[in-house]
Amino acid sequence: MVGPSGGSVRDEAAVSVLAQLGCEARVAGLFDLPRELEGPRPAAVLVEALDDVDAGRAALQRLTSAAPLAGVPVLLVVTVKGLSRVRETDPFDDLVLFPYVPAELYFRIRRAEWKRSDFAVGERIKIGALSIDIAAHEVSVDGEQRRLTQQEFALLCFLCENRGRVFSRPQLLEKVWGVDHYGSSRTVDIHVRRLRMKLGHGVASLETVRGVGYKMKAP
User: Fold this and answer.
1) What are the two backbone dihedrals, phi and then psi, of residue 108, each rounded to the nearest 5 degrees?
2) Residue 204 DSSP symbol
3) Coil vs helix vs strand at 169
4) N or C: less crowded end of the chain, CB within 10 Å?
5) Rounded (10°) CA dihedral 79, 85, 90, 94
6) How far apart are CA 78 and CA 100, in angstroms?
């Protein structure tokens, strides 16, 4: 939790509320963010700006540039009075109103963590906003289902199952379309373009490796 000086000792502060919920919380001053964070990577960061939205915005900007926090969701905490000063462009993942409702605070932290999480378990793959259910042949972005053709789905699954590896267009043609397919490298380019159009930021990790091919960037 990033908050004003003394915020950690207030009974209604996030660190106190989270402790009641059984969560472990660490505290940093609003203007004294450490250059290097010690200990385990946090599940989320709360910026307890309350009425001082400008100070919270400064903290948000420092947090987004902190390498140890790359990919960690950030939640901005404001009062009803401070809400009108929040901008749509402020770099936070979710907004929490103060005073806290413990169940809501916990839910928003878990929700932000889920949206940023990556995993591959059994026949389910999740990469940030993108979720793939291989068995059900379903793809969703931010919980919204997107329709893919059979080959688009197969290409997406193959790249996601082999994150971090670069594949040339001929390799993708062979592994996704099969050795008997008589397509050209343009077939792969067209399908990659369609995936980007249909899935948007859900495939932000899909990279074009100039002169080589494509890969799904490793976490």
Assistant:
1) -70, -35
2) T
3) helix
4) C
5) 30
6) 10
CA nearest to 20, candidates 101, 97, 100, 102: 102
Query: Taking a C-beta distance cutoff of 8 angstroms, is the pair 7, 1 a contact?
Result: yes
The answer for residues whose C-beta is within 8 angstroms of residue 40's C-beta and 6 or more apart is none
The model carries a pTM of: 0.59
Residue 156 has pLDDT above 60, yes or no: yes
112 residue type, one letter: A
Per-residue pLDDT of 102-141, as tens digits, reads: 889 888 988 888 777 777 667 889 888 899 999 899 999 9
Output the CA torsion 107→110→114→119 (10° steps). Answer: -140
b/e sequence 83-106, b meaning 16+ C-beta within 10 Å: eeebeeebebbbebebebeeeebb
Alpha carbon dihedral 9, 11, 16, 17, in 10-degree steps, equals -160
Domains of the chain (ranges; CATH) run 2-116 (3.40.50.2300), 118-216 (1.10.10.10)
With beta carbons less than 8 A apart as the criterion, state whether 2 and 28 touch.
Answer: yes
Using the Cα atoms of residue 98, residue 66, residue 200 and residue 130 in order, give the sign of their dihedral: negative
Structure tokens at 68: 């140890």
